[in-house]
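hiii so um. not sure if this is the right channel but i have a protein structure encoded as tokens and i wanna go backwards to a sequence. like what aa goes where. can anyone help
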């Protein structure tokens, strides 16, 4: 969301992402979005190192709400009905997450943004996304990243890194590949929920992912 910057929100980047999401939503796909808060939290990361972990995690959750509001505004300006739901109750800002209400929003063609993680510290955005995917009975978790898929080592540091087109949950865990945190991977494995890892920065990839085209890396049972 920060685009080329290191902090805050880049309006052009948000418009590009939501433009693609809007195209997918208009095709009739049901979409739940989860966004992190690193683009805001990086600005206070140095101070947070000396903070209580619980307080720091709560700051991160609130940062995701700010990003969720930005996404909601950008989507609605493109004519896409959107609902922001949060795990922390902020009734003046967003709806509280209620599973049946979230499913109903999706059935009515609304894009639902899930913010504030699980409301619990020590749980990552990945775990929050996986939990929400299971609760709304999603077909797949789509992990949008800065690289094309899952590699045997960091492709940004190692030019000889090899990408997997397909890999099992167990292989990801045994190789300790840093795709998502281990709790999220284990939850998907236990519930047979596949994960598609793809590059968000390639135009059209969100639509390709939604249509089930060969793209990035599929993590499966």
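sure thing!! here u go:
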């Amino acid at each position: 969301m920060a685009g080329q910057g290191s902090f805050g929100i880049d309006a052009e980047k948000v418009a590009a992402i939501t433009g693609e999401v809007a195209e997918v939503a208009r095709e009739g796909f049901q979409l739940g979005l989860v966004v992190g808060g690193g683009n805001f939290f990086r600005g206070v990361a140095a101070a947070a190192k000396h903070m209580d972990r619980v307080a720091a995690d709560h700051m991160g959750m609130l940062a995701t709400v700010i990003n969720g509001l930005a996404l909601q505004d950008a989507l609605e300006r493109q004519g896409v009905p959107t609902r922001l739901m949060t795990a922390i109750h902020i009734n003046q800002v967003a709806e509280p997450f209620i599973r049946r209400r979230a499913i109903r929003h999706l059935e009515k063609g609304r894009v639902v943004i899930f913010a504030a993680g699980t409301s619990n510290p020590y749980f990552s955005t990945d775990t929050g996304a996986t939990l929400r995917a299971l609760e709304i009975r999603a077909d797949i978790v789509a992990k949008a990243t800065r690289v094309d898929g899952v590699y045997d080592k960091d492709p940004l540091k190692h030019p000889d890194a090899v990408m997997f087109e397909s890999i099992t949950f167990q292989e990801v865990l045994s190789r300790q590949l840093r795709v998502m945190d281990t709790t999220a991977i284990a939850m998907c494995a236990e519930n047979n929920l596949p994960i598609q890892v793809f590059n968000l920065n390639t135009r059209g990839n969100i639509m390709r992912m939604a249509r089930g085209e060969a793209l990035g890396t599929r993590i499966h049972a």
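oh and The domain at 11-220 is CATH 3.40.1160.10 (Carbamate kinase).
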